[in-house]
Amino acid sequence: MSFTTPTIRKQETSLNAGDFVLPGYVYPQTSFVMGRSTEHTYPAINEAGVQMTTPAFALSAYEVNQYQWALFLEENPMWAKGNLSSLIEQGLVDEAYLAGISPSTIFVTNRPIHNVSYYAAQAFCAWLSEKTGKTVFLPSEGMWTLAAASHDNLKFDASLSPIPSQLKEPVALLGGVWELTQTTHIPLARITDYQKAHALHRSFGLPPQPIVKGGSYLNDAKSISSNTVGVVDPDACGDLIGFRVAWYE
Questions:
Q1: What does the H/E/C string look like for the chain?
Q2: What is the pTM of this model?
Q3: pLDDT tens digit string along 43-93?
């Protein structure tokens, strides 16, 4: 089984809430093979091919930036850095939350937000859902992989200053920062039953260990592909971990 992706015709769109505008692209419902077949030995199992069907969705053109995070903090002070002790006590972040970052609504920057946790990213999505009236969420591993696999000119971005694409494609899917997904890592899921493993995980209410995709600007570009998978704890905040959002039109 090899990785095959049908030709995808993306449509431009945007997520709007007053002055908040987030450009993106709509992907149609698609069935494809995610990953590729490999020998069933570690670590090759991380790229074992699985049949995947993704619903129609929109994906942001850029990773969420520090200015957008500052807008979120203005309306959600519980996530401010000054509330770090409480956030740690609740198990929502670790001590690296927003380390070295001072998000500001005065100084606009397109540098991606990082040192935020999976739980913090989920809170951002919930806030944006309320503001826009649309269902905003972290993309699944399948959605992220489809966007990367159908990219017409997928290149590794070795910086934290994204340059808009003239080809009307998502920017910095590879490089930039590792991007959180909503998909939980389950050992051996790809060589047993991918869908059943995730359904069982949800039914038991086990804590997520979210998959991250795309690598960071500090990775060796040759070591990162659209199939590369990383895993983090849900409260972990890292210098090289950020996210982009998806939504339903």
A1: CCCCCCCCCCEEEEEEECCEEEEEEEECCEEEEECCCCCCCCCHHHHCCEEEEECCEEEECCCCEHHHHHHHHHHCHHHCHHHHHHHHHCCCCCCCCCCCCCCCCCCCCCCECCCCCHHHHHHHHHHHHHHHCCCEECCCHHHHHHHHHCCCCCCEECCCCCCCCCCCCCCCCEECCEEEEEEECCCCHHHCCHHHHHHHHHHCCCCCCEEEECCCCCCCHHHCCCCCEEECCCCCCCCCEECCCEECC
A2: 0.87
A3: 444 456 677 789 999 999 999 999 999 999 999 999 999 999 999 999 999
